[in-house]
Amino acid sequence: MQQYSTDTIAAVATPLGSGGVAVIRISGQNAFSCADLFFQPVRGSLPSQMQGYTCSYGYFINQNHEILDDVVLTAFRNPHSYTGEDVVEISCHGGRFLSQKILRTILTCPDVRLAEAGEFTKRAFLNGKLSLTQAEAVADLISASGENAVRYARTLRDGATFRKISEFSNLILEMLSDLAVWADYPDEDIPGVDADTLEAKMQHLLSDMNQLMSSYDYGRILREGLHTVIAGKPNVGKSTLFNALSGCERSIVTDIAGTTRDVVEEQIRLGDVILRLSDTAGVHDTADKVEQIGVERSLSSLEQADLVLAVFDMSVPLSDEDKLLIEKLPEDKTIIVYNKSDKSLPDFGADFHFSPVETVEISAKNQDNLSELQNAVERFANRHATPAEDGMIANERQRVCLENALSAVQEALDALSMGLAFDAVTVSLDAAADALLQLTGERVTDKVVDTVFSRFCVGK
Ligand code: GDP
Question: Do 233 and 376 fall within a single domain?
Answer without folding.
Answer: yes
